[in-house]
């Protein structure tokens, strides 16, 4: 592994140069300086170009060139702003130029040389734009094109026949290309595969799909060299191994890892507001005046929020106080593509003062002169925060400036902890998971779409990828059987098989082939691993013609974007809500569109809050606990929060860092138990499920619970403070690790969470299709039928491949079982109990979450009866 | 009676169809996973002067006539999807019939009437696995069995026993009872007997599902719709989906005094029709 010091020569580049140069952003990312020792690596045209600019190669860029000469799989790990992406392209630019100069350039005419994969469409588009300038300035004969879901069909078709030298695309598009009959010829010439933002991709199912695609590429183009580009991660070697082929579970080569340390420390603060921080809630409404002042004082500000609805709320609120009508824009994944592109273009042109955005802008897009990043809400993870902050001054040589805006007291503790974490550069990226069987099934079908395959070859190929390196042959066979006929013990669907065996004429071996070209069409329609809740288009329309009976609602209008079906279901006709930065009136649902009209109301009637998507990282959690336990450190907190904690100390207990506090108190005829575990929403939800089961068994008659990132609150009909004396259950027994055994099994077997996980797996694996040629299947139907299917499968074939896939997913991701296990271990013998008469200061924010968050409990049928009684039936 | 006691008394297995999962972000209600079904939970009521017993499975028993009614079995829906390349577990017909056999064993009817859409498509009967077909044959030969035709299955030629007809008229206690597939099919029908009394129509087709709000969530549950002079039955089959009561299709039948008999996991509960919210206000009922 090569470790690089921060480049001492960085300060050579004057700002003026950047500003006067239309490609300023790009040039700074190259950050060359004159140095003759680069000449052997650089063809003259590059050398001259650099000399003209007065720049030279940075050490890590030189290392990247060396790695290319040696043909090694390479991983470049560098903090944001080090010019990672273009370091990845430089070797390809040089190689193509050198070939041309030596007379071999002709063969690169309409041949694919470098494939670039990014997790975001927008990133691919941005990179393509950035590449154009040096290519034009040096007069290089290199073609660059993007290929995304937005690329017109005729262009995609042409790209398969006559590809550009550099093709910039996404993992899904790569899967589609690999599943085409042209794949073999298209990729034969491939020399370099650049995988951008690799740290973000590998921990998801998209990463699993990409790893299988990479393995396939290695078979099609044995000379192609993968180059991974990543932000700082917890385990660089693991990420390096992700790039290289495996056999029998072991890496077959060692990757070259170039790690660039350091950069300047970002300049981060927690917002200090005159206004008090609320104890609960997520709107950060109190901070609005401060935010506006900050926006006014900076050139361009990015405001990151965690959910789309928060983005809408903040954007709307800012405009209500935008007296100077500053250009403030909104950017989130649900907005229509054309709207997003408009914002992106305005951003690149430097004509915006602020953009309110969600994680769609998290990744490496370089947006010109952002000089301030504001993070609203809790950052949830130190690495995520570092990524976002890196958006400001996307350069290694200047500190990024960022302000954290907590929306409640608990978040303030978290912000403080995250801030400390960022200073010391701690990393909390999760490890790479075992590859999912659902993704494998999708890949197998894709492989068959490209042509008949030998199962042994495919098995070798699949197990050459890092996430699937330990895949047992038996499971692989089951996966093929699953794709072919559903993999059921009752061989009911042989006549409808998607894959059929055939004999290879030359070798006599058995090959699998697609049974019908229609199946390839189905595959193409259903590709991908992101299963979202069904989305509904929001269509802006208006009332037409006359009044009264004559009035009718126009059915055609501009699509503003898409929202989750569940959100629209929560609206009644006439309700107003925020979307695309406007207050809209919901009129009615029509097929897949929600028809809306403009309204004069300034305050939307339906507040929308979706809990944070990202659970608090383990690492931040431990920091929050430590901070809470150490009253000395409170002095760094705002006075009002200090007061909150002081009250807690007075009223209840402040647990030490290794303790877990449990409080019990009665309230309006019910008994509450709150535990402060700071283990993230997922782990605490799982704990809530398991605890209510146990309490049920103990006869404590629990009624429901609510879980946040920080705490879990359970309530019921019996006093949980007297659990031991009345029911003979001590807290130690209640929290014993054995709850992860039978209780977990029996809960999971019936769990709705598992059913949802199953639905995702069923969709990704192709058992349920999102789309069928000629048929639009609505998400609503999918939800119902996938649950029915789950029940049937569980009863009849409990060992079915999809149930295995579901369990793997749930255990590792959704339920955070590992984390819960670690927590139960940690708190053993360290539970402190405070019996109280009323809720403590820490409990109040949790109490306020009830009613805002879904409540879980066993009492579903009771609810039906209750409702009936209410109606006097 | 407390609900928990009630539950203990009617310990019913979860292998019965569970209707639909509520759509809410997280959370779960566990039920027992005992695969051996016990006796069905039932709910006795009268509607339009006729006494009925509804079963948790979605069947309706008419004691007076010793007749069991089921609607929308959608047999072989799984294989219907398989033809298009979606391989759902191929056990739906077998489960539906097992459930029906339980209902039959419990109520011991003389007559069984399937209110249409008994097969998901026209070719369904041909695809029925032999073992399942044999089981069905045994059921149809042991009872007076009537298949009403539905929109999915004209059932022109069915070789599984029983008789086929479009509409069936029976005599109730006070009025004629018309059994048919789609609501409204009895309109304009020449009714023998009491020409002044409106007849009671019992039908299926719409797959009614209620949305019940409460405690910060919404449950989606199959239900019987007890409307004026009409009962709309829930869909019985293992893979049948549902249509929410707020949908346009129900509008003509949802009078003010309509009631819903909602099928819970382990109980049935009677509600006024207004309990079911249009997909909408549930979230604001806090």
List keywords for this structure.
heterodimer, A: 873 residues, alpha/beta, Rossmann fold, Arc Repressor Mutant, subunit A, 4 domains, eight-stranded parallel beta sheet, B: 286 residues, Purple Acid Phosphatase, chain A, domain 2, nine-stranded mixed beta sheet, seven-stranded mixed beta sheet, 5 helices, globular
Written description of the protein model:
Chain A has 873 residues and is of the alpha/beta class. Helix content of chain A is 42%, strand content 17%. Chain A folds into four domains: 59-260, Rossmann fold, CATH 3.40.50.300; 267-423, Rossmann fold (3-Layer(aba) Sandwich); 441-526, Arc Repressor Mutant, subunit A, CATH 1.10.10; 652-873, no CATH class. In chain A, the strands form eight sheets. In chain A, strands 1-10-2-7-6-3-5-4 form an eight-stranded parallel beta sheet, with helices on both faces. A six-stranded parallel beta sheet of chain A has the order 11-16-15-12-14-13, sandwiched between helices. In chain A, strands 22-19-25-24-23 form a five-stranded mixed beta sheet. In chain A, a hairpin with a 2-residue loop joins strand 8 and strand 9 (250-251). The longest helix of chain A has 18 residues, at 84-101. Chain B has 286 residues and is α/β, with parallel strands linked by helices. Helices cover 16% and strands 27% of the residues of chain B. The longest helix of chain B has 16 residues, at 92-107. The chains are: A alpha/beta (873), B alpha/beta (286). Chains A and B meet through helix 21, helix 25, helix 28, helix 29 and helix 30 of A and helix 1, helix 2, strand 11, strand 12 and strand 16 of B. Chain B: This is Putative phosphoesterase. Chain B: Residues 1-40 are annotated as: Disordered. Chain B: GO terms for molecular function: hydrolase activity. Chain B: Residues 1-16 have a biased composition (Polar residues).
